[in-house]
């Protein structure tokens, strides 16, 4: 079973977004290097993980501007404007060692842009031989088309990022995968099986089967970091939903508020029953002052007709959840009796999508996973 794609913006070229007056960069758990009143340039390092942290992260200023007191704690707020051109790089990518590629990706603050938000340098340090880098261009979530546009308009950048990732992990093969089969295609385990014909072991990672999987925009960000000396400052986002009048794909500085993006897209907020950061299946219903993060592929303003609120009616034991699950799990049984098989649950929401009793199955599955820990 597949969910309809509804990719109405797939043919819309990427456009720049009119910049917001300020951006808010999340810095929770990081050391901040700037304070209110400081001037910053786009690309300046403004926060990073404490030294020695295993999954170290870095944040750079998306704007040329001035730091002001942040609206919320755990954020740096900058008033100013983005800058298209950054200073020229001092590196020649062709001469970089695998270690230097990983270090440059870490310094650029690149995180998984498919929604995983895991530091990419950690993924590029698998600690075991990897034969293939798979670039995931499936983007199966309904509405979202930003990765497809990046592939259509910047394929050379994506291929360059893939080759750099291959060098980092010592892989001799790279593949860009994009299928049109609809949600829930594109899960890492499915891609590894499709490309290498092997299964990722239960509880394991793609590297355990000889592959790493990175998103299309992550690959492009690797190219930008290595070849243009540009840290992660923005991403392409799909803006769509029944309440949006000017839907499309926009380049958006990280830290831009969803409300600003929807205003630029002439969204009718009176019509919107839910604002979602991400896609409708795995995205998160969010307030208008939530901000775009590296993994935010979509900003949706959905009407009442486009959403289905869980009603949590009693289970009628129809078995539809088992039939719809792409990895063969029975949500009904796992919620009643949490078991080790829950580790295979990807929280894709297919069981909830088909449940005739409109049960909050994903939330219940998450709770069952916690009960097992
Ligand atoms: S689909 Fe819903 S109603 Fe049917 S068995 Fe699963 S949880 Fe119960
Ligand atoms: S959320 Fe989990 S149990 Fe439900 S369909 Fe997806 S993988 Fe299966």
Describe this structure in words.
This protein is α/β, with parallel strands linked by helices and 373 residues long. The chain folds into four domains: 61 residues, RNA polymerase II/Efflux pump adaptor protein, barrel-sandwich hybrid domain (OB fold (Dihydrolipoamide Acetyltransferase, E2P), Beta Barrel); 136 residues, Rossmann fold (3-Layer(aba) Sandwich); 73 residues, Ubiquitin-like (UB roll), CATH 3.10.20; 53 residues, no CATH class. The chain is built from eleven helices and 16 strands. Strand 12 and strand 13 form a beta hairpin. The structure holds iron/sulfur cluster (2 copies). One iron/sulfur cluster (SF4) binds next to helix 10 and helix 11.
Features:
six-stranded mixed sheet, Rossmann fold, four-stranded antiparallel sheet, alpha/beta
- Under the CATH scheme, which class of the largest domain? Alpha Beta
Number of beta strands: 16
How big is the Rg? 21 Å
Count of spatially separate domains: 4
Task: Give the overall average pLDDT.
Answer: 93
User: DSSP helix count?
Assistant: 11
> Can you write the helix and strand succession as a string?
EEEEEEEEHHEHHEHEHEEHEEEHHHH
């Amino acid at each position: 079973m597949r969910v309809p794609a509804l990719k109405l913006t797939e043919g819309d070229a990427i456009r720049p977004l009119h910049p917001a007056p300020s951006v808010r960069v999340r810095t929770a758990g990081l050391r901040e290097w700037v304070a209110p009143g400081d001037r910053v340039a786009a690309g300046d390092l403004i926060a990073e993980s404490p030294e020695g942290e295993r999954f170290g992260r870095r944040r750079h200023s998306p704007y040329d501007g001035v730091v002001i007191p942040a609206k919320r704690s755990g954020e740096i707020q900058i008033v100013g404007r983005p800058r298209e051109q950054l200073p020229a790089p001092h590196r020649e990518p062709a001469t970089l060692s695998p270690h230097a590629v990983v270090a440059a990706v870490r310094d650029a603050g690149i995180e998984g842009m498919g929604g995983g938000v895991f530091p990419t340098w950690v993924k590029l340090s698998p600690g075991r031989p990897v034969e293939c880098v798979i670039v995931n261009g499936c983007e199966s979530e309904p509405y979202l088309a930003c990765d497809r546009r990046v592939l259509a308009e910047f394929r050379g950048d994506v291929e360059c990022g893939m080759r750099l990732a291959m060098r980092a992990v010592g892989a001799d093969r790279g593949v860009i995968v994009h299928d049109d089969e609809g949600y829930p295609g594109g899960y890492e385990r499915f891609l590894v099986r499709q490309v290498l014909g092997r299964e990722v072991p239960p509880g394991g990672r793609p590297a355990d089967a000889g592959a790493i999987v990175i998103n299309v925009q992550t690959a492009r960000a690797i190219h930008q970091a290595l070849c243009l000396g540009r840290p992660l400052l923005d991403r392409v986002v799909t803006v769509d939903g029944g309440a949006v009048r000017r839907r499309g794909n926009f380049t958006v500085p990280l830290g831009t508020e969803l409300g600003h993006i929807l205003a630029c897209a002439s969204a009718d907020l009176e019509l919107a029953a839910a604002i979602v950061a991400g896609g409708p299946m795995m995205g998160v219903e969010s307030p208008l002052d939530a901000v775009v993060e590296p993994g935010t592929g979509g900003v949706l303003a959905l009407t009442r007709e486009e959403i289905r609120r869980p009603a949590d009616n009693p289970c009628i034991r129809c078995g539809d959840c088992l039939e719809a699950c792409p990895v063969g799990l029975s949500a009904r049984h796992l919620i009643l009796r949490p078991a080790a098989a829950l580790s295979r649950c990807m929280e894709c929401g297919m069981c909830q999508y088909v449940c005739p009793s409109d049960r909050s199955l994903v939330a219940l599955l998450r709770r069952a996973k916690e009960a097992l820990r």
